[in-house]
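Escalation from tier 1.

The customer reports that the assembly of eight entities below gives different structure tokens on two consecutive runs. Tier 1 could not reproduce it. I'm attaching the input and our single run for tier 2 to review.
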Amino acid sequence: MRVLLNGDEQQVEAANLAEALEALNYRDVIVATALNGEFVPHDRRAETPIQDGDAIEVLAPMQGG
Amino acid sequence: MRVLLNGDEQQVEAANLAEALEALNYRDVIVATALNGEFVPHDRRAETPIQDGDAIEVLAPMQGG
Amino acid sequence: MRVLLNGDEQQVEAANLAEALEALNYRDVIVATALNGEFVPHDRRAETPIQDGDAIEVLAPMQGG
Amino acid sequence: MRVLLNGDEQQVEAANLAEALEALNYRDVIVATALNGEFVPHDRRAETPIQDGDAIEVLAPMQGG
Amino acid sequence: MTERQFYGQSLANRLLLGTAQYPSPAILADAVRRSGVEMVTVSLRRESGVERAGQAFWQMIRDLGVLVLPNTAGCHTVKEAVTTAHMAREVFGTKSIKLEVIGEDDTLQPDVFGLVEAARILTDDGFEVWPYTTQDLIVAGKLLDAGCEVLMPWGAPIGSGQGLNDVFGLRAMRAHFADVPLVVDAGLGLPSHAAQAMELGYDAVLLNTAVAKAGDPAAMAIAFANATRAGQAAYQAGPMEVRDMAEPSTPVMGKAFLL
Amino acid sequence: MTERQFYGQSLANRLLLGTAQYPSPAILADAVRRSGVEMVTVSLRRESGVERAGQAFWQMIRDLGVLVLPNTAGCHTVKEAVTTAHMAREVFGTKSIKLEVIGEDDTLQPDVFGLVEAARILTDDGFEVWPYTTQDLIVAGKLLDAGCEVLMPWGAPIGSGQGLNDVFGLRAMRAHFADVPLVVDAGLGLPSHAAQAMELGYDAVLLNTAVAKAGDPAAMAIAFANATRAGQAAYQAGPMEVRDMAEPSTPVMGKAFLL
Amino acid sequence: MTERQFYGQSLANRLLLGTAQYPSPAILADAVRRSGVEMVTVSLRRESGVERAGQAFWQMIRDLGVLVLPNTAGCHTVKEAVTTAHMAREVFGTKSIKLEVIGEDDTLQPDVFGLVEAARILTDDGFEVWPYTTQDLIVAGKLLDAGCEVLMPWGAPIGSGQGLNDVFGLRAMRAHFADVPLVVDAGLGLPSHAAQAMELGYDAVLLNTAVAKAGDPAAMAIAFANATRAGQAAYQAGPMEVRDMAEPSTPVMGKAFLL
Amino acid sequence: MTERQFYGQSLANRLLLGTAQYPSPAILADAVRRSGVEMVTVSLRRESGVERAGQAFWQMIRDLGVLVLPNTAGCHTVKEAVTTAHMAREVFGTKSIKLEVIGEDDTLQPDVFGLVEAARILTDDGFEVWPYTTQDLIVAGKLLDAGCEVLMPWGAPIGSGQGLNDVFGLRAMRAHFADVPLVVDAGLGLPSHAAQAMELGYDAVLLNTAVAKAGDPAAMAIAFANATRAGQAAYQAGPMEVRDMAEPSTPVMGKAFLL
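Tier 1 run:
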């Protein structure tokens, strides 16, 4: 199915957010995730189903002032 | 009955705010009135009953910055 | 003879400063004069001889701050 | 004779500034001296005669900004 | 530049004056008349049926023939301010209200939360609100959204006479709301402060203490009026560019050689 | 307070104006007339027998019917300045001279050594010297000893428009020479600067570029005249005392209880 | 004076440093290490599964062994800020959050309405909120009511380097909240600005651009750390009283008579 | 940049400290030692053969192992200053002299005429003159012509603690004499003033009262030393450019979309 990953359209086959991250190259990466604008804690990714058209934000630490 | 007129206790016999003002020396005075913290327009004073313990504010133009 | 008029070389035939001004187009002009850096008052121009190489400054009113 | 020592009248018997300092309690003191407003270097005190009415300034290091 | 309107009202004289703290009513009247002030602020206070002090004051103000801008001075809550505004509208017969919702007594700065709420209530109710506010651009935006057509940021704490404490903030506000009538209200102490505010592009200044507490209030009122006019004219005339270094005003060209 | 005299001359309008750098002579004339300026500065420059530019300028100035204050602008030595002063006295028919002895070209600040020397020579020779100087109190004292009856400290570098760069120095000078006519000369850019100078107790301001280089010189001249008058009036009227904290202008007493 | 705590945390070094805009990560690390900074701000941005830029950055920060204060930079709404705070808490493993709710993009000043609302939500949710706010005392009061134990008023617009634009406001805030840890956040450009903030009694300063954009960031970081320490020490040591006039430091008594 | 020399002398610590007005000699010694000051100013006063106060003071100073800069404080004439300088050279065994020729007692500003004359006499006589002067560029030029290799313009009146009263003048002086060691002498009240002076490119600061009259002089001395170092480092590190508007420090790129 198609998802919006950090603003870009991506094709991914996954039942939940955890699988999606796996499939989208985020294995072993320290990130925080949001699904359609709602924060999804790390331990809830596996139980968070995703569907076609979902917007996924994957954020990591970055420079800040 | 006793009313609180501009913060001071006063004795007055009146059925409504208009009569009270009359009785309290405010005939022909340009003032705005409030009863228990609520504004009472000029043309509603006659229909505004007052009772023992009411707080009446009678305000007039004054210097201001 | 050659004089330096306001910084420019000029040819002029004159025995004194008054004649020189006359010859140099300054008739009826309100100006102050200096000869070789020294102020020459109006009424002393006629008695002030000039010679070849003299520097004549002819100044007039101008904008100033 | 009488001298003015740092502004105060003093009685002292001495032929020169060196003796005067000796007599006035300045033995072994690090000071600079002036006689009647003129600086007298250390090595010239002995050859500097003093006379009645002289003003002697004896200065030492002090706090300064 | 099309002339600025304050709720549809033109003001030739951009000095707005408070009416409090003068040595006498006569001196106040004199100050207003001789400075040509067109709008003054007034307030409401408790009236005694016996002394009736307010009646004489009000008659004096009406005789001046100026516009009146009632304030809600001293109100610390939305309810107080709104009720006071209603009472003022009836007594003074004007929709105009200088809205003050005071949040703190050492600086007398506005409670911007209460201010925005009260502004909304009053504009919905047909008032023309002149809000006493800060240089906060977001608050300003909310006041405009609420329907205010004039904004009055403070220059410094009321009655302090310090002048313009945050020139950057005032400049940013002017730049950000180019089309909104802006009045510097409170804190001015000297005519140069008023001129400076107008030179920044502000449309008017409102003050009281600096005039009322001057040795000669009428003379000071005239001085403020002149300075306000001067600052306004300078802004419109287009000031020179400031330079880091000197530049001769008298032309160097043609200078004599006199050595 | 007895009215201040400048070499025995009264000046109702305390704005002194330079005549250089205007877009046109007509605009200069307009600025002088409409601002009511009573004294202007002028200079001497080389005149061509053919063009005779100076003659027309001088006629125009005379038609304005104002007092003229010739300057020694651009002079870097005592001799230059003194000679220029003598030539100016003859041409302009006045003993008044604005004495400039420039010491440095980036700031155009005076050479205070040459200034004092030239001032002495010229006052001894019957001139009424208006020295362009700094805030230096010792230099000021020597200028007074030399016979100057007016002092003109700079506000900022000539033509910079920066305003009053050393308020402390100006304040100290005013306090130190209470009886001497003091004019802030040069560096002003906005009417608020002129008002501030007068509020400090200065007796006049002299400027040129800020008016000549304004978008609308005549309007700016009027603005400076008004601001100067405002600052002067404020100083005489007696300003309020500045306060650290706020103080309600509207009386708190008698405020309604509306909660 | 008992030592100030920031949410129970002591900070010997009162310079807090941002981590953005440095020429390189190595220079950032060098600046942090050599200045002895104990707390740095960080943010969250989109991570690519391929480049994984964030991972390296995060490792570098952890190696520095400093406290991290994640921000909600760029958030314009309460929801954005709150969601970002939650994501930051998970990733950075800290309850601390520098709360920014930006209200306007030219000045990057906070939306004080959204700020207070977000602060309430986050403190209720267990966060330790460091709010980026203005000098508004009423807003400050609401932030404290919401549970904030630190306040961070701006000095000037973020990244402007202007210094302290409203000294009066900062002074009033310090006086009004004597017991609250106050941090001047944003707008500082020079070490003297940091010293001045601390001399006013502020407890810390937070900056980024002034160090990151300096020619030599590490040297500038050390300079800011020293200036911050100097200002703090001066405030505690008790400064002299400012005088209007001069007073000889060298004693006059005992001066020689040498005329 | 090659390191600045003061008459061939390097100074790692650019804070020069006066020795007067301390609560006690012990506190003075503590302040000098703990701040790492390398040069202190001293003076000459009348010594009593009985009390011999000066001897103890001088022993204490020598024990500090710092450079001494004797002053001519309080001298109002060239003769006084020159004689005092000679006496100081003998007693302190140094060619260095801080030359003060006071011209006015309210501001304690230098008599620039006497200053230049005395400087010429003393440099001709082999002294290394550190002249206490103003921001006057022409005076500065004459002092350099006289042989001075260091200039010490005032920041504000001695002992006033006002800071830098004429930043423009100081900036112009720095720009004009890029190769001359410049020391801001007198008038500083807070470490931020010292930092600001060094950020302007000055090479050192000299002060006394701000430290001696602080609640804790030693702590204040350290604070000034740190601030001076910070300002110097900032000047060398190259400060950011000041901006009119805000610029996000945290990158906007990569910001999450969380609405």
